[in-house]
Amino acid sequence: MNILLVHAQPESTSLTRHLVNVARNFLESRGHSVVESDLYAMGWKAVFDGEDFPDRSDPERLSFIAESAHAFASGSQTSDVVQEQNKVLAADAVIFVFPLWWFSMPAIMNGWIERVWAYGLAYGYQDKGNAHRYGEGSFLGKRALLAVSVGGPEKDYAPRGINGCLEQLLFPITHGTLFYTGMEVLPTFAVYGSGRVDADVMPQVEAAWRNRLERLFDDAPIPFRCQNDGSYPDRHILADHLAPGVTGLAVHTAER
Ligand SMILES: Cc1cc2nc3c(=O)[nH]c(=O)nc-3n(C[C@H](O)[C@H](O)[C@H](O)COP(=O)(O)O)c2cc1C
Q1: Hey, which of 64, 97, 182, 203 would disulfide with 137, CB 3.0 to 4.6 Å?
Q2: Distances (CA, A) of 89 to 94, 138, 183
Q3: What PANTHER family does the record tag this protein with (predicted)?
Q4: Which atom number of ligand 1 is nearest to the Cα of residue 98?
Q5: Whole domain around residue 244: which residue ranges?
Q6: Which ligand 1 atom minimizes the distance to the CA of 99?
């Protein structure tokens, strides 16, 4: 299978880079083809701005969505963006490896998403607005996995932990960014207390990580509800009979 590893940590001795190295070696040893986007090494342009649209459809007013649609449809996207889109399109699975920064991904990786996730590709699929999203779209059939190095202790990210449950904190990425495009998103792999993983604990971390990679194409994805399977009759609001009386992010994940 083709696997894309997108990662964002320039320090070679970091835990993030260690997870990347373990992943590359393990996946290749299993016969997979691994391609990387090492965002710092690539000097990835993190900021989504007017330079992303060298051939503006409207030179007077910068509408990011309209220009993204025009650039994607007319073939006038910048070459770095096209290259990354092609990597994603060729991948059977995309793995994002990053340190948790302010409860999210580093800006350089967020900028990768903003620029690579074009209108017509990742959203506005088939130029039909929101008709195809959440379980449908260009990236249907691909798997996605977040591997996150987390500074804080696991307790702080427990279901009642002070920081909030990690999987819920990452919902804007897993649900709003990846599942949105049609990808099947696996439960997040996290290493907590990342600033001080003792040498004698590291083999357990590596084993757990390899175990998840081994099951990359077998593990059940997070059971996010699909927009167009009847769960959202008007494509906006969850049907009354599902999670009755409950509100919040959790309603968008079905009970297993
Ligand atoms: C800018 C910045 C923001 C951070 N935000 C968080 C955070 O929100 N939660 C947390 O637990 N740790 C946070 N940390 C700690 C990192 O998660 C930790 O340094 C990282 O996981 C270490 O792994 P690495 O060696 O791969 O970078 C932050 C660190 C930095 C530099």
Answers
A1: 182
A2: 10, 8, 11
A3: NAD P H OXIDOREDUCTASE-RELATED, NAD(P)H DEHYDROGENASE [QUINONE] 1 ISOFORM 1
A4: 26
A5: 225-256
A6: 21
